[in-house]
Amino acid sequence: ATGNKRLDSAHNVVETGRAGLVFIVPGRGATLRVNGRACISADPRLLERLTPVGKPPRSALVVEVEEAYQHCPKAFLRGSAWKPEAWLSEDDVPSSAEITLSHVGVPGLTLEQIRQSERESLLHRYE
Fold first, then answer.
1. Cα–Cα distance for residue pair 45/53, rounded to 1 Å
2. Is residue 40 within 8 Å of residue 9, measured between CB atoms?
3. CA-closest candidate to residue 29, choices 88, 67, 86, 72
4. How many domains is the chain partitioned into structurally?
5. Are residues 4 and 65 in the same domain?
6. Three-class DSSP category at 53
7. More confident position, 96 or 76
8. What CA–CA distance (Å, rounded) separates 13 from 90?
9. Is the pTM of this model over 0.70?
10. Do 120 and 93 share a structural domain?
11. Rounded to whole angstroms, how far apart are CA atoms 79 and 88?
């Protein structure tokens, strides 16, 4: 995917030169943990190789793996992450649009505008 164009994680990588990643596979308890030195690259030669949606991303996370290991699944098992019957109902948690509106602080931005933007993003992201 081309990403959400937010730089939260990229900021942390630039600041520390490190990354810790957890790879999650739905239906599996164990996860893969990867830690290492990291940087953000905008090298066109790298980015042109990363085109799963037909166009290259604007940047890429590059990780030199120092550690890779299976991570304990206790939190997923205890939290019932893979049990839909244990999940909260959609009415009990804010929508992604509501969360975005509460965080961006853009004067005049409405919930409906964010919802419309999310719908359009889903329609056009994978073209």
1. 17
2. no
3. 72
4. 2
5. yes
6. coil
7. 96
8. 33
9. no
10. yes
11. 11
* Cβ-proximal residues to 60 (8 Å cutoff; 6+ apart), any chain: 40, 41, 42, 46, 47, 50
Two structure tokens written together for 5: 């164009």
One-letter amino acid of 62: V
| Cα–Cα distance, 59 to 43 (Å, whole number) | 8
Q: What one-letter code names the amino acid at 85? A: E
Q: Rounded mean pLDDT of the chain? A: 85
Q: What is the pLDDT of residues 11-65, one digit of tens each?
A: 889 999 999 999 987 777 778 899 999 999 999 999 988 887 677 888 899 999 9
Place of tokens 């056009």: 124
Rounded CA gap, 73 and 46, in Å? 33
Q: How far apart are CA 109 and CA 72, in angstroms?
A: 41
Pair 50, 57: CB distance under 8 Å:
yes
- Range 49-79 burial, b when 16+ CB lie within 10 A, else e: eeeeeeebbebbeebeeeeeeeeeeeebeee
Residue 108 is part of which domain span? Answer: 88-127
Q: How far, CA to CA in Å, does 7 sit from each of 3, 44, 60?
A: 10, 19, 11
